[in-house]
Structure formats: structure tokens, C-alpha cells
From TrEMBL:
The chain crosses the membrane at residues 34-59. This is Phage shock protein C (PspC) family protein. It comes from Algoriella xinjiangensis. Keywords: Membrane, Transmembrane, Transmembrane helix.
Length: 73
């Protein structure tokens, strides 16, 4: 039973890149490398986006004066 589940998961889940590379006619190692680079790039883009938003909020806080109440005008 365990062996059947293991064989099924290896053939159906872990061979996705291999089958995709066969259909495209590309080497599997190149396609795996592309997927690894894309995953790092998307992670890096989210961090860069976070820092850009943080910078704009910092700029906004420099120019907008926070008042405690309406009567502080």
C-alpha cells in the first residue's frame, strides 16, 4: 500500500517538470533552473515592493503633520 502511494505521487506530482520539458523539447535541468530563478525573483519582487511602499509612507510622514485634535490648528 505504501509503495503504491509512493509510486503514484512520484509519477504524478514529481514528474511534472519532466513531462513539461518533454512536451516543450527542453532539457529538464534548464527548466528546473528557470523555475528556481523565477521563484527567487518573485520573492525578491515582493520584498522590493514592500520597501518601496515603506519609503513612500516615510516620505508622507515627513510632510504630513500629525495633530492631536482639531483645536491645535
Amino acid at each position: 500500500m505504501k509503495e503504491n502511494i509512493r509510486n503514484f505521487t512520484e509519477n504524478e506530482w514529481f514528474n511534472v517538470i519532466s513531462r513539461f520539458a518533454d512536451k516543450l523539447g527542453v532539457r529538464v535541468s534548464k527548466l528546473r533552473l528557470i523555475f528556481i530563478y523565477l521563484s527567487f525573483a518573485t520573492f525578491g519582487l515582493t520584498i522590493v515592493g514592500y520597501f518601496i511602499m515603506l519609503f513612500f509612507f516615510w516620505i508622507k510622514d515627513c510632510f504630513v503633520i500629525k495633530r492631536k485634535s482639531v483645536f491645535d490648528l
